Amino acid sequence: MQNSKLQCKIQNLKAGDDILFNGVIYTARDQAHKRLVEAIKKREKLPIPIKGAVIYYCGPTKTAPGKTIGSCGPTTSSRMDVFTPILLEAGLGVMIGKGSRSKEVVEAIKKYRAVYFLTYAGCGALLSKCVKSAKPVAYEDLGPEAIYKLEVEDFPLIVGIDTKGNDIYRSL
Amino acid sequence: MKIIKADKIRDVISDLCIQANLNLRKDALDALKRAYSNEKGLRAKRILKAIIDNAVYAKSKKIAICQDTGFPCVFIELGQNVRIIGDFKASINKGVELGYKKGFLRNSIIKDPLLRGKSGSLPAVTHVDIVPGNRLKITVLPKGFGCENKSQLKMFNPTAGWDEIKKFIIDSIKIAGPNACPPYVIGVGIGGTADYACLLAKKALLRKITGKLANRLTGKLFKLEQGLLNDINRLNIGPMGLGGKTTCLAVNIETYPTHIAGLPVAVNISCHALRSAVKKI
How confident is the model at residue B215, as a pLDDT? Predict the structure, then answer.
């Protein structure tokens, strides 16, 4: 499924569905979230096109020579919960991470008809195979916490929270 | 008297950092394989398979098992007849720095916990034990922080019973829930002081996962460990928290004498990527 296709199909995805994603995703974790939200509050221009964007909670290891990226699995999503509703309001479409989200995030996902995906936690080596290109696009001073633009192929995702607010962890 | 050069220690620690982060511990991998064959649910099985495949791929391609290459924790057992030539403490940090650079591991350590700022690989958290003999045993445990964040400490009354302690340990796992990369390995430290119980809990993660009595003088702790393991695996948290029989691969308890007025209990959780490497010089 590609970015454009994902936008069309997003409403049909149900918590628990498995998909393979092809397209562009941006990495962002704690400090990048803090900066993005500060920028939104100050009405500054964001360094990435946030409308409909896919954000991946990830801080990869260093890239060895000849490789595209290092190990690049998901980090714990709940640490981003305080920032997420503001980013969703600004147009963020999709999040990828691991673990559960707060009630506020579930409500915001429902309100803005976004989706939260899980990917294979602690499998950063395997996931690196799906990354076809990677380049830092913002906050490079943050090192592994910089925002990287990744092009991914057959990136495995499980729908964690769908646009209707159904949560895979609450249905277990 | 045995003489060891600080440069040797640096090189050993550098290798251990890489080894630990790239090669999943054999006992952890074996435990995952056992869990895979015992697991019934399709989703849980698929996730366990990905975890096993990930470890195999990381080793063959020399890439870190997980992007969180951890807080470098270094445990030293220093034989009292060992003499170190050079700067011992500096050699530990130089080894970590070198290993994290050579292994393309992630710089996850920031110099100031409040000001945050740019990350590097240093310093390590180091624990030194003085032991009899003329050997130096070095263990590197790169501790991922998703699971470190779920650590717990409780100072019980000395009259507390096992049921209360057990509830605290199981509640700690419930709090971690799906968020710290289950299936977990649980380190429990009981006794000592508040800080020492936390250290014991972390050291418990270094013990091999065998499912057997190992070298215990008594089978009492083993029974408590097995009881906890069974109870935790009934929580249905499962791999990635998506349900299943495998919430926990092992529970390791370490104990130490304590004060008549107290009963400290600490829980240190490891994600499924339980990484450590050891070398004796």
Answer: 55
